[in-house]
Write the structure tokens for this entry.
Amino acid sequence: MTPRSRPTYNIAMVSDFFFPQPGGVESHIYQLSTKLRDRGHKVIIITHAYEGRTGVRYLTNGIKVYHVPFLVVYRSASFPTVFSFFPIFRNIVLREKIDIVHGHASLSSLCHEAILHARTMGLRTVYTDHSLFGFADAASIFANKLLKFSLSDVDHVICVSHTCKENTVLRASLDPLMVSVIPNAVVAENFRPLEDSEVQNGMFKGHPAPVRPPGPDDMITIVVISRLFYNKGTDLLTAAIPRILENHPNTRFIIAGDGPKAIDLEQMIEQNVLQDRVEMLGPIRHEEVRDVMVRGHIYLHPSLTEAFGTVIVEAASCGLYVVCTQVGGIPEVLPSHMTVFAKPEEDDLVEATGRAIAAIRANKVRTELFHEQVKSMYSWTNVATRTERVYDGISGAISEEEFYGYEAVDGWSATRGRSGVQSFALIDRLKRYYGCGIWAGKLFCLCVIVDYLIFLFLELWFPRDQIDICPDWPRKEPKERGKDAD
Amino acid sequence: MAPPPGPHIQSAIPSDTETPFPKLVRSSTLPASLPTSSRSSSLHHRSSSHLSPEDAYAPTSPPRRATPYANSAAGNGPSADDRRRIRHNDGSRSRSRRRKRFQKLLWVKQSYPDNYTDQATFLENLQRNPRVRPYDFWPLVADTTVIVQHVCSVIIFIVCFVGIFQERVSPVAVVGWSSFATFVGWLIWDYWVTQELQSLPPDHEARTLIGREYPPPPAPPPSLRRQDSTGPGRPSIATSIVTSTSNLPSAASSTTNLLQDQNASLQASQPQNNGENSTTTGSNGNGNGSSNNGENGNGSGNTLLVPGHPHSRSVSSLNSISSQASTTPNPANPPTPNVTTPPPSSRMYARISTIKSAILIYFTLLGLSPILKSLTRSTSSDSIWAMSFWLLALNIFFFDYSGTSWVGRGTGSSSSATAAAVAITSSSHAPGPGPGMKKKKMPVASLSTNAALMASTVLASRLPSTGQVFSLTLFSIEVFGLFPVFRQLARHRSWRYHVLLTVALVCGAGAGVGIILGDPARPCEAVGVSGELGVS
């Protein structure tokens, strides 16, 4: 808005989950980092060491990745030691002159530790939540307590959907104003619909190319790509497939993905003798997802919980009609003409799939337009712009009243103090942590004090001036704010 | 959570990209600091911002939904005007511009900042404790009677043991009275079952028989278990397969295949069953067995389904359990006339077989008593007390209080008759975590009975004479093996019987404990023993 020069930041993305492991969080971090680089910021990524990936690596666009050696306990989440990450983290942060620490994924202990240490060191912190959690069972209660600990002193939180925001606000007792909703995005170029040239080039080795638009007797292919876990609704799928195939002749399923529930699906196929109508591809790489998707007409997403559901955006971008359960953030993601919603129960899922098949057969759905529409809805550049506004807000580059609204200026807020951004004073931080619970609050305060003492010790033992400053990768020309929404 | 259908997609997507983010007002997002334009509603609001117990189980109860925010969301409430006024800085611009309503959608580019929190829609779908069920006091008390009954019967058993142990009660009296009570109970039980069977349509008869005649099984030995899982359970598998597969007409050929496969496997397992039958009865030829098979495969299974009497079943298995516990070779071949071809008056036959097995078990126990007496004699008394305490505690904790084996099995269609049937039906029909449900019927019920009989066996070794051992063991079989069966049916039958039984048991247990503790004759020993045992 104002022609002042736009500030650029040194940002450290911290998460346990990063390449080479595939997944939604991983690609989110990478895409966001790339676009932030494009906007003139400096981005480094801190993750734990993977097999064959240790030390420092550079990715495309000059993104530097630090693979910190850490013990991995479960599904590539590192072992939660509250303090042990601090020395190396401090070293990296000082070496790279980091201003903002941006943690990802609530199951990543690396992320939470980094947020704690960053606040101790006086850095701004942002946290992005990618998932929904329950409130009822013991594991969730414990996880939510830890999240509350970590987020008591975070500057801003980003959630991928409005439902996710509500969930996170409730779980971590946050002020809703300090939670932004910035959706995921897709690289629409990687999810193009099938082109005629591809069909002629024989991309479908042995597979019949899908007929578009399908006539009343043409084969309709329903694609399912998901990890086959309970929370992805594989049980629902197992129950629904025989009924769908029974109700609709000339339909078939392609199921890609792997997981503990794959055996149930295979049993279902065996029991109902559906080998010729259900094809199970097993695990596929993310690059192959598009090639599988374009073989179908309908994408079925039976998930039981989902914060955003990137895969249904990818499916719509490939020109598939989407049948999905109405859970979590899914209803917010796609417009209603691209989707058929079902309640997460067997009967409704079967019925909704039936409606989708009927609509496709009647040629009522203009799937060929989906790609352009999705492209205009979601782009990573947009995500990066909106994330940048969050950075501006927490570092004071845009005024508090602009960022939070007016009343926050007048009243003193416990979360933000008088300066509009969160105060780094230890006593203020302790106040925030103390409110976490009768026992937990005191325990958390103890942790923070210990963390602070470690910080002082590190300052003495490894003085700042003895840490080398690493030279920057040449930055890109920062684009003017607001002129980039493509 | 249904989004408003987006008819204006084309307009929504490209527009609004360069509109500046409007100011966000804290008052518009935080309910606590809302300018209370309407005084009357402020009190209501305050009460609703805190959780009250009713919120826990109001079905969909975000209390905010009914508050004035909803009105203000429509944009015409007075509070909306207030908000506009607060937004004074560049309010002229934003007021002049007709703003679209905030939508909880991600694919629409909206003119709201990312951290905008819309008070009308924020948390509107929040459900607090959707699955919580409020408990009322008296139904809860009524439900505890099952546990009370069982605890009381355990206490009565302990009291009787202490009485026998201190030689204050004649063991003959104990076993005489209890046997008499058991006999009367059996008569009542038999009357009830007959009545129920007559009231049911003949189609259901078979199934109820399956369910009814097999109370929570006290862990039959493998031979018995195989028999009863193949005998009466098998037809229900057949029927369930028929139902589950006949629902799939699309894959017609495959279903017939499947059916044939299953029938083949059925027949493969049947001859073995019939072989046993013929060996036990001797009169049952092979041809007869195969004709049974034919009927069986048809799924009606009406004639084959009359198994033995439950008393005989449980008694025989109990017998073998106690003999297993005493680590002697099983002397009494379990009486297995129960799966033979049924005579026309199946009830009469069942009665006779029950009496037969009762006599058999009586004499078996009589023969076993000397062995049981000396079995754990060398173990010190302290260990025995501790062990029997833990075993009885195990019995109480793992007892099958549900009683669903009566009701649920009888009326349920094809579920839970056998685990296999459940597996087949659930994998093809039940959604969600279906496969996990079939583990519901756990073997802990038999664990409970086994623990109690073990306790009685170890306690019996403290008794000096064979007669006492015999009476205690027989009494324990009656209390732990047969009495629960009667209690369950009484509860199923009529609530009044259940309450009466509970009251009687509580009185009996209380009186027994009082007599044992109140006797000044041998205070230390009585207190020592019953204090040790009475805890359980």
